[in-house]
Amino acid sequence: MAETDKKQQLVDCIRMLERADYIDHNGHCSIRRDATSLYINTGASIRSSLTTDDIVAIDLDGNLVEGEARPPLEFYMHSEIMRARPDVNAVVHTHPKWSTFLTMTGHSLKPVYAQGVLVADSQLLDTPMSVNTREMGERLAASLGNKFTVLLKAHGVVAAGRDMLECFALAAYVEENAHRQYMAMQIGTPYEFSAEEQEACREKLWKPGLFQKTWDYYYSKLT
């Protein structure tokens, strides 16, 4: 993918997450530029009106290699995951409501709807503190392990993906599942998909075409 296309895809991802109320003025997302650097939105950028001019490139130590504005203080989330996971080419950090309500009250994410099965193995970083040091970034990457989503206690969510579409879709599924789970908990105990049902969902739903469908659905709301 050309560098200009990567930047535009990153901009689209951030604007869709903001429109869906999954990020606020502090959310940030990245896409791998090459083996040793990544594109990320600047810390001061306005997420709702983001353009490619708000994208900078940094190396995995946070040094600017393209652009002049500063990256987010939590760039370590992105750099340390990409350092530890060569298969990951995109990372998003969201500040959503429903999944954060769950971690604030000690509830784990449960597979309560089909797409939610794909993120049911979300790990937990058991601290609300900002991931603004390399040590914290390494701790986050270790929490992620070989999975693709991490819940940050009373803070937000980090999702990783082999491409931007996969990453975006998984971030969306976390919040969609958490919303359903939270609302069902107001009535009673939510039904959790059985092991057999989860296996069937993973086989049928972890597909690029369905991640594209999720992306297209959210993208349509930007126009």
Describe the model.
This protein is of the alpha+beta class and 223 residues long. It has a single domain, classed as Class II aldolase/adducin N-terminal domain (L-fuculose-1-phosphate Aldolase). It is 41% helix and 17% strand. It has 7 helices and 8 strands; from the N terminus they run H-E-E-E-E-H-E-H-E-H-E-E-H-H-H. The chain has an 8-stranded mixed β-sheet, sandwiched between helices. A hairpin with a 2-residue loop joins strand 1 and strand 2. It is globular. The two termini are 24 Å apart. The model has no long low-confidence stretch (mean pLDDT 96).
Summary, kept brief:
This protein is 41% helix and 17% strand. It has 223 residues and is α+β, with helices and mostly antiparallel strands.
Topology:
Blueprint: H1 3-19, E1 28-34, E2 37-41, E3 55-59, E4 64-66, H2 75-84, E5 90-94, H3 98-104, E6 123-125, H4 134-144, E7 149-152, E8 156-161, H5 164-185, H6 195-205, H7 208-220
Parallel strand pairs: 6-7
Antiparallel strand pairs: 1-2, 1-5, 2-3, 3-4, 5-8, 7-8
Helix pairs in contact: 1-5, 2-4, 3-5, 5-7
* Strand adjacency order, main sheet: 4-3-2-1-5-8-7-6
Our Rg estimate from Cα atoms comes to 17 Å
Write down the domain tally.
Answer: 1
The biggest sheet, with number of strands, parallel, antiparallel or mixed sense and barrel status, is:
8 strands, mixed
CATH superfamily: Class II aldolase/adducin N-terminal domain
Q: List the uncertain runs.
A: none
What does the overall shape look like?
A: globular
Distance between the termini: 24 Å
Q: What is the number of E strands?
A: 8
